[in-house]
Amino acid sequence: MMKLPRACRGVRPPARLAVLIGVAIACCVANEPARAESQTPAQTPAVAAAPFVSDRLSVQVVGQGPDVILIPGLASSREVWRATADRLKATHRVHLVQLAGFAGEAWTHGDGAFVQPEVQELARYIREAGLNRPAVIGHSMGGLSGLLLAQQQPGLVGRVMTVDSLPFYSALFGPTATAESARPFADQAAAMILGADEAAFRTQQEATAKVLSRTPDEQTRIVAWSMVSDRHAVASAMKDVMTTDARPGLAVMTTPATALYAADADGGAPAAMAEAMWGREYAALPGVTLIRVDGSRHFIMADQPARFAELVDAFLAR
């Protein structure tokens, strides 16, 4: 059991933050043979490749029409969006992002920063690809990235949707948490990721996946993606996520925003708790549309695919 830093003692980490830490620890202890063996089934061949070279992310492009960028979360593959992309490609040009270090994508930055450099590369991609104010949809850490992109580059983003994502994840410890009070805990979490042995690897993976999704097939994919993620990348991303607070920029955001969040009476977040948390943390964002998706855990797109498709279509039609 990880010992909480003094600033967080007495506060029991809620489910989403515990899951975030748990999946990071689980996904980073795979050995190199397992990494190579698992990479093939975890990836789907590119349909089309954008002419963009980056050591922070890669992009696959499918379809024609208005542009939509899809960003996966911590230790996830772009394949989390494949069903969404396959559905949208008849009417939209879909840009599926794969973040470096996750799901078998190479990582060359050691223990350096993760989130802000990735956000900067997303902005560069939009410019170099000549996209006209694309819609941006991000899951979990990908949603935080979308918020930061819209705050830092408002002229580049047409609208943003976050999927079970908060502007400051460590707010799950309580309303008085700050980036500074979370930093010691973030450092400890990163150290655990980097120092984890392989003994409990698959057991941790499978247990965590069950908390992240109600759907067995998605649980299997989550484990496979995690197994081929780079531990330094995930440790760096974890530390950044826990100490990045996008809330101060919410009040001045002009980009239309929608925030989906999950609630599940059968083992997930209780509806009242989720509603209070998302309402509080997004309160400063003018005109934000908050939508609760019941019967779902963290991976809403897998647990409630029909409802998710309906909400994405409504978001893109605005």
Features:
12 helices, seven-stranded mixed sheet, single chain, 318 residues, disordered N terminus, alpha/beta
Descriptive notes:
It is a single chain. It is built from 12 helices and 7 strands. With 318 residues, the chain is of the alpha/beta class. The protein has a single domain, classed as Alpha/Beta hydrolase fold, catalytic domain (Rossmann fold), CATH 3.40.50. The protein has a 7-stranded mixed β-sheet, sandwiched between helices. Helix 5 links the parallel strand 4 and strand 5. Helix 1 packs parallel to helix 6, helix 4 crosses helix 5 and helix 7 crosses helix 8.
Q: Report the principal-axis shape.
A: globular
**CATH arch. level architecture:** 3-Layer(aba) Sandwich
Could you estimate the helical fraction of the residues in percent?
A: 40-55%
Indicate the CATH class: Alpha Beta
Residue-averaged pLDDT: 86
Describe how the helices and strands are arranged.
Blueprint: H1 15-27, H2 32-42, E1 57-62, E2 67-71, H3 82-88, E3 93-99, H4 115-128, E4 135-139, H5 141-152, E5 159-163, H6 179-195, H7 201-212, H8 216-227, H9 231-243, E6 257-263, H10 271-281, E7 289-294, H11 300-303, H12 305-317
Parallel strand pairs: 2-3, 2-4, 4-5, 5-6, 6-7
Antiparallel strand pairs: 1-3
Helix pairs in contact: 1-6, 1-7, 1-8, 1-9, 2-8, 4-5, 6-9, 7-8
